[in-house]
Write a structure and sequence with these properties.
Layout (H helix, E strand, L loop, with lengths): L1 H17 L8 H22 L21 E5 L5 E3 L2 E3 L1 H11 L8 E5 L5 H14 L4 E4 L10
């Protein structure tokens, strides 16, 4: 009689233990996904937090070239051109001082090659500032446009 009880217990356990599992247990996968979701929900606001600034609004208006506007160009080597004529830094300062007292004061439009060092453009800006020019603008090409000088 003892052998039948042992055999009955053994046969009941053998069906559930020895059979291959046909289903995937998705509970650990769901747990991991929920943890990742919570981690991303916490870290995304921290990563995107920036210093609160009020950035200038972009206004894409074509500049109107007036005859009284001063066009200054700076090439890659740092040469400065008044309209199309090359001038020295001292001559630039003198010419800007002669146009600064005009009423209305002309705008200075600076065109610089994309490869120009900032130092060369900075010299033009400082010269305009020292001469008393109030409006200095930078002329750029629109996206996809070809540059020319």
């Amino acid at each position: 009689m003892a052998s039948t009880v042992t055999q009955g217990l053994h046969s009941a356990g053998s069906d559930s233990d020895d059979a291959p599992m046909n289903e995937i247990n998705t509970t650990p996968l769901v747990d991991v996904m929920l943890v990742l979701l919570i981690v991303f929900m916490i870290t995304v606001p921290v990563v995107t937090a920036t210093v609160p600034l009020e950035l200038p609004k972009v206004n894409n208006q074509a500049t109107q070239t007036k005859p009284e506007n001063v066009n200054i160009a700076v090439n890659r080597e740092g040469q400065v051109f008044w309209n199309t004529a090359p001038i020295s830094h001292d001559e630039l300062l003198q010419r800007l001082r002669t146009v600064a007292p005009m009423v209305p004061q002309p705008e200075v439009h600076v065109r610089a090659d994309q490869q120009t060092r900032y130092e060369y453009v900075g010299r033009v800006i400082v010269a305009a500032q020292r001469s008393g020019i109030m409006k200095v603008g930078f002329i750029t090409e629109p996206e996809g446009g070809g540059g020319r000088m």
